[in-house]
Amino acid sequence: MPAPEPVRLGRKRAVPSCPNPLFLRWLTELRDEAREKGLKTQYSYQKAISSLSKYPLPLQNAKEAKILQNFGDGICKLLDEKLQQYYRENGSDTPIHSLPEEAPPPGRQDNNSLAPSRKKNAAGGEGKDRGGGGGGGRKKKRSTCPRRGLAVTPILLTLYRQSQIPGSKGYMFKMELQAEAQHLCDKSFTAPDLGSKYTAWSSVSTLIQKNLLVKTHNPARYSLTEEGLALAERLEAAEQATKDGAEGEREELRSEGEEEEEGGPGVVDLTGSDDDEEEEEEVRVQPAERPTCVAPPRSDGDGVSGKPQISQATSRNPNAGCLLPGSYEIILCVDFIETTGGSHHRKQELVKELQRNGVNFDVRKLNVGDFLWVAREKVAPVPGQLRAPTGRELVLDYIIERKRMDDLCGSIIDGRFREQKFRLKRCGLRRPVYLVEECGKAAAHMSLPEATLQQAIVNTQVVDGFFVKRVQDVRESAAYLTVMTRYLTKLYQNRTLTCRSRELDGDGGSDEEERGTPSCSLMSFAEFNHGAIKNKCQTVREVFARQLMQISGLSGDKAAAILEHYSTPH
Amino acid sequence: MYALRRAKTWEISESEGSDAETKPDLNCDEKSQTVTVSTDHKSETSPSSAAKTESGQSALSPPRPERRGTPSPARKRRSKEEIEADRQTAREKKEERERQKAARAREKEERKREQQRRREAAENLKSLRPENCLKSLTVCVDPALLQQDGSDILLDTLAAFEWRFSIESQQLPRSITWTRDLPQGDDGKGSVEEEQVVLVLDLTDFMDMVISVKKMLDSEGEETEVGSFLGPLLECLNRDAKKVVTLLVTDSQTDYRTDICGFDLLNETLQSKLGMENLDIEAVLVYLQLCKNISLVLLDGWTDVTNHVCAVTKALSKRPFKLLTERAELPFCVDGSWASGARVERDGSGLIQVWSKQIQQLNRVSPAVASTVTAAYPSPQLLLQAYQSLSSEEDRKGLLAGLLVKSGGKERRIGPEISARVYRCFTAQNPQLVLD
């Protein structure tokens, strides 16, 4: 393991060492050429250089470099040409991640390996909070297209720091990781910038591919592999070295950065290295999916140094996870499928009725259930912004599945009935409701005998523990939803709500709550909707169980029993 | 003659003497060896034996010296140690045998007990099976209900099903509850009262209740008189909050000719007489749901009530078994058409269908893709062997990527993503590894 680089006296940042020295050298050459000629392309090369310097992983070829910011087709093509030439001159097997002819500068360890060498965050170090700082205090322009590579370092560092805390669980959930790593990363983890479908989270797949990160379990847990750990250690050491030297520069840049800062729609800078912005951050522009309750700002000016408390984030800012009474409103969420498709006019009638009744509702895609309620923070629009900022949203415990009698029939016949109930039971909301419509309708028109349907409904109440609401028609459904919304609004009038994270805190006891006393510890809508996605990632174990059940006569509980002893096909 | 007599007495006394002089412990342990040992022994303890036998026959002494003289001194000593050693070994062997015997007996006992336990568990499980669980359920009916017209159909039906029922005053008047006998435990049979409660009201009673609730809501929690139906209901729930009450409102007023159902009449009555809006009634129901977990079913008469009671009874009988065997550890619903399995005959035909279906258990793998894989590798073994024959991880991951899938007239490759997932699925050691 190379020792951390010594800080050079007189320099504010240590010498960068790069896992892609060849590319770096060529880019530097190109830049210098352009500079001599007074061409503007020198700036493009410079930008590419700064991106490359921050990237800790070895790139195999010029095409891979495209994932980095500021590497456009032109630069990649040039690099590729140079690479091909290099191979021609030196043999096609020559390692490209070392510079054999260059004597390593004093203090630097041997660079001659294909493994990712110590990556120096230095070039970006002083601007680390802001990300993308150019060489030596350049004014950084916020670029428009984050590429996939940029969040590699923040993610590795976040996981590393967490793993160094004694007693830490050794992995992080997606929301956790996003929240913590966001502090170190300029690019948003959840909102793609304009023109790109990538968010900073895309780096995760790169890391998994390179075997630095491993994703296990469902809900997903992310942890470092041995290689990842080694690299992260080096990155951290580099960080520390920089930090000591770069304090001054960072102040400079921060003030610079502030001037430039614009919140683009949907892009939020949660890097929050500024104390004074602490309060604002809570309410800032945030896309609806942002897990806002888990990321308090840092309370001191220290940018990037490892903070063991980061993982106990919620305790540091008492307001972080709370919605105070009066600061939010209860909104009915209607699954958009309830408003489209099928018999057009009938579906739309529901929405019309709701409108007629003056219900505060919102149509959106729900991954499970047809109706639910969220407590949404009331946020004042910020002048000068096109879109009103979206407040935090917590989802109430009630979730409604609406079924017309003919739907019920169909779903029993094709087997969806049980699967839907299964998903409702697991979604994390503790009060599922089955809204059965057209209860009085003549049974003769159904494909199943009435007794069967009635039994199914009773089973749903007695065996599955759902509340069953029977109504005559769409209008009654609408009336029901209207009244529920009003009642829930009243029920939550004076309550403080706290955000509960299912991945971190588990499901919690629902028996403890009295009926009529509304639950005030609620999940964020983002976490809920994400967790309820139908075809989630599969684990080896899960697929194995399903495969076992393909054997005739092997049922679910037998498969589970086998799994206790042999959990993989291997 | 003397010689003869001597011999006789000697013989006799020998045995006597041997009995007398044999060490007591030896006697107890090894009776079979007594004679041989004692003859040797006798020679040692001749003085005492001589003394003993002298009491009987003095003529014995002469042979003794002869006897004493016969074994060599070395043999005498050894024999004493030998005796000890032999005794010791014999003792140990015996103890060992007994230990083993005891251990075997214990094991047998344990096995028997284990079998007993399993049998009991199986019986318990069996008794929880719906068809048997029904036998342990008792439907408890409040006598007040039976005074209503048309209510006899309830008991008749229960009797026809051969379900147990009892007629006893319920905590909540006019209600029906259920009790279930628990499987035999060590502490004897107990029974548990199920949380489901069915309250049968007619339309007028229900109206009464609705009005009471509305008054309560309007007065915002102030104590108002709650009426004769709501009162007991609230009390019952206060006593046991876990109860799930279903109101069965029977409407014997349906005008069959016009098919106007009672609820509409209810609505009309409430609206016209009390000025209640539609939404007001809904508000009452919502309150009952959110705060008391009470649901409502509108029924036509006692036939419907009976049907409902039977449905609840059947549901209750299904529940214990389901809860016991339901494995929440599997993150997917175990019911579904995908889980049916493919039939395999004795000759092995059908196996390839199973294999194909197994491949399809991965997300986003279509039947066409699966059959391409099974065509190339008709058994899991062959696929695994193929993986083994390749040396690099990369090669293995990409083994299937190039296979061509023919579907809908188009040809496409399986692709590296699916190929990598299949590889990881069958070779990963970490069961929690995410494939996607």
Structure report:
- The complex is a heterodimer of chains A (570) and B (436).
- With 570 residues, chain A is of the alpha/beta class.
- Chain A is built from 19 helices and twelve strands.
- In chain A, the strands form two sheets. In chain A, strands 4, 5, 6, 7, 8, 9, 10, 11 and 12 form a nine-stranded mixed beta sheet that branches. In chain A, strands 1-3-2 form a three-stranded antiparallel beta sheet.
- The longest helix of chain A is centred in the middle third of the chain and has 35 residues, at 226-260.
- In chain B, α10 (203-218) crosses α11.
- Chain B starts with a helix and ends in a 9-residue tail after the last helix.
- By secondary structure, chain B is α/β, with parallel strands linked by helices.
- Chain B has helices at residues 2-21, 24-29, 34-44, 46-56, 63-69, 73-128, 130-136, 143-146, 152-161, 203-218, 227-239, 262-274, 278-292, 302-325, 351-359, 367-376, 380-389, 393-397, 416-427; strands at residues 137-141, 164-167, 175-181, 191-193, 196-202, 244-250, 295-299, 404-407, 410-413.
- Mean pLDDT of chain B is 78; it is low at 1-69.
- Classes of the chains: A alpha/beta (570), B alpha/beta (436).
Supply the key terms.
A: 570 residues, alpha/beta, B: 436 residues, two-stranded antiparallel ribbon, 19 helices, 11% strand
Brief sketch in words of this structure:
The complex is a heterodimer of chains A (570) and B (436). Chain A has 570 residues and is α/β, with parallel strands linked by helices.
